[in-house]
Amino acid sequence: MAALMRSSTLVAGRTSRAGVRNFGVAFVFPLVPAVLAMGLYAQVLHGLADVPGFPASSYVDWLVPGLVLFPAMTGAGVTAMGMATDLRNGYFDRLRLVPVHPLADVGGRLAFDALRVVPAIAGVLVLGAVLGSDLLVEPARLAGLVVYGAAWSVVYNAAFLLVGVKTRSDQAVQSLAPVFAPVTFLATVWFPAELMPGWAARVAEASPMSAVTEGARAIATGQGAGGDIALGVVTMLVLGLVLVGAATRALTSVSKGADR
Amino acid sequence: MTTITARPVHSVGRGPRTRLVAGRLARQALSDPGTALVFPTVVPLALVGILSQVYDRAADLPGFPGERFIDWMAPSMVIITPLLGAGWAGMSLVADLQGGYLARLQLAGVGRRHLLGGMVLFEGLRSLPSAAAVLGLGLTLGAPYRGGVAGLVLLFGLTALLAAAWSTLFIAVALTSRDRAAVQAVYPAFLPLWWTSTSLMPRDAMPGWMQTVTAWNPLTVLIDVGRASALDGTIRASSVAAASAVVIVGLGIGYVACDRLLADATTS
């Protein structure tokens, strides 16, 4: 276990150094869509808060919890592209000379994915406060949202990592980028499910993204008690275990295949 | 020893040379239809399908024009369709710059203006199948269309001109960076333009400062003309002239900038 942690830390350090060298893509890009969404999109659609039955006092208040999860999604794929490159250029052949478990590699990269979205999440919270959101006053809730958003980055980026390992293709990883749009629009990130019509409401209610979003909303508002937070955390845990497990298995089979 | 043979394009006129460039791009697009044609269609179709459902209740807002949100949104999505699938010619140009194809074209007598003309012509035409699909989905979802044939010509004409004008941004980035990643990084530039237009909400439902921004957004001019034609069958000559002027000026500025950048790229 200690060896696994040590290896993960080394991989995270290497990935961090690569991220710092590519600062804009790793740290700034994840923030930009969220800033545009809050600064422009939320302003254009601010009238939605006047729709009868809308459950928040302003559209920005509704968006902030969902947009805390946004940087993880719009900036996803940086470490997965690095993984695809490493698999193509022989890095893993060299790595097999030292005893590094595939889980340590996957875990190290995802640890960096968690850390690199923290500044972007903080940016979302600051901008939300500037734009008048009255949710963001308690430091404990703010810290909770940062941790929650970073955990979501691990889960979401694990899917990209899986594709990176399976395909070894930057383009394949990059082609996943727009997935965030249907995933978030068919959930409660942008609009409450109870105000959506027909199939959209049913899809949004059943979406794991809604469960995760409502967990963030419960942290931000303090409403919905622990039930929504627990459901959000459990959803992330299940998705995370499945995706991290699949990525680790895929990387293991790649290593074994190369050994044969 | 390698023998290079080139088609004697110097024997054909300017128009045909431009069409040769556009034709080559069209053949490239058909060999990679997923990236060139399917993706630029699927993204706006998905957005229309999803946004029209998710924000359907926006039509309940006091003073919202139209019975349903799709009525308001569909015409605008036809016009912004090319922004959602832009950059193909720019990407292709990067490969041409890196592979030396541009130098061979010069030897074959294809000038800068033929090359640029062919690229913007192709991008304008490439936008039309996607725009038609988006209009078709809007109609399927119940959006009204009262513009007749003249409205269709106006809607698709503005869409193609916008596609041509917007493509010059990607061509310019390709010429300055020679880097596919840089060309791709320009893709989200449409978001602020889209989100500060009247595509999703009427101006009256926006806060004051956003109304001012929206009024100055060139995309708003195009969307308002296309929407008036589709919803009411109204085609005012002055509005059409203003919208045409916006895209033609945009195309002209982009074309001249790209021409200068191409001159630098081919002499360096």
How would you explain this protein's 3D organization?
The complex is a heterodimer of chains A (260) and B (268). Helices cover 77% and strands 0% of the residues of chain A. Chain A has 260 residues and is mainly α. Chain A is elongated. Chain B has 12 helices and no strands. By secondary structure, chain B is mainly α. The chains are: A mainly alpha (260), B mainly alpha (268). Chains A and B meet through helix 3, helix 12 and helix 13 of A and helix 2, helix 9 and helix 10 of B.
Describe the secondary-structure layout.
The complex is a heterodimer of chains A (260) and B (268).
Chain A: H1 2-21, H2 23-28, H3 31-44, H4 59-68, H5 70-74, H6 78-89, H7 91-95, H8 102-116, H9 118-130, H10 139-167, H11 170-175, H12 180-185, H13 198-206, H14 208-221, H15 225-259
Chain B: H1 14-31, H2 33-54, H3 69-84, H4 88-99, H5 101-107, H6 112-140, H7 148-177, H8 180-185, H9 190-195, H10 208-216, H11 218-232, H12 237-267
Order of helices and strands of chain B: HHHHHHHHHHHH
Gross geometry of chain B: elongated
Portion in strands of chain B? under 5%
Total number of helices of chain A: 15
**Low-pLDDT residue intervals, each spanning 5 or more residues of chain A:** none
The sequence of SSEs of chain A as H and E is: HHHHHHHHHHHHHHH
Helix content, binned percent of chain A? over 70%
Radius of gyration of chain A: 19 Å
Separation, N- and C-terminal Cα atoms of chain B: 27 Å
Question: What's the short version?
Answer:
The complex is a heterodimer of chains A (260) and B (268). Chain A has helices at 2-21, 23-28, 31-44, 59-68, 70-74, 78-89, 91-95, 102-116, 118-130, 139-167, 170-175, 180-185, 198-206, 208-221, 225-259.
Please give a handful of descriptors for the protein shown:
heterodimer, A: 260 residues, mainly alpha, B: 268 residues, 12 helices, 75% helix, elongated
